Amino acid sequence: MAYAPQAWRDFAVTTGGLAGALTGLLFVAVSLHSGALNRSRSLASRAAQTLVLFVTPAIAAILLTAPQPGAALGAELLALAAVAGVTLFILDRRAGHDGGGEVVVRYIERASPNLVTAVLVAVAGVSFLLKAGGGLYWMIPAVLAGLVGGVTNAWLFLLKIPDD
Fold first, then answer.
1. What's the CA gap between 44 and 50, in Å, rounded?
2. Are 124 and 136 a contacting pair, CB within 8 Å?
3. Short-list 128, 46, 123, CA closest to 82
4. CA-CA distance, 138 to 125, in Å (whole number)?
5. How many angstroms from the chain centroid is the CA of residue 145?
6. Taking the alpha carbons of 24, 151, 64, 14 in that order, is the dihedral positive or negative?
7. What's the pLDDT at 42?
8. Do residues 54 and 23 lie in contact, with contact meaning Cβ atoms separated by under 8 Å?
């Protein structure tokens, strides 16, 4: 089952729907606070990070449901991990870090759902290509990291938006 993408169709459909719904809610939140986000590079970068964390599982869901050879799926998962990882790294640098801040924020930044999500998608791709080490089962923690990390990131950046 770990190396049979067709067995993951229901997982992919559920993941895609959930990621799509969260992405839509993010767009509503961003549009309601667009003025504050336009004034703050840090807030805008955090919002963009959240978008990438939601879109990564959505794209992975599309890849899992597309009829294609196994080697293509593994390579696409690796490419998705690389693009998401680099994008999240750049956005994280642009956002900066609060020197002080809340204890919760510091722990979340250390746990870095950005890095975890990209690495787990890459592990799924490599493991799937090698047909060893768990294969697509790695997509479960990857999707969880992306979605939970995105929700947490959204909560943190929405808390930092000043009241107008």
1. 10
2. yes
3. 123
4. 9
5. 7
6. negative
7. 81
8. yes
Residue 60: Cβ within 10 Å count? 31
Q: Over the chain (164 residues), what is each successive 10-residue block's mean pLDDT? A: 88 94 91 83 87 95 92 95 93 71 57 83 95 93 93 82 67
Amino acid at 75: A
pLDDT score for 15: 95
- Neighbour count for residue 153 (Cβ, 10 Å): 23
* Residue 66 to residues 5, 32, 138, Cα–Cα distance (Å): 9, 35, 18
Give the pLDDT of residue 107.
58
The two tokens of residue 101 are 């801040």
- Residue position matching structure tokens 């993408």: 5
pLDDT computed for residue 70 by the predictor: 87
H/E run at residue 12: helix 9-32
Contact 37, 44 (CB under 8 A): yes
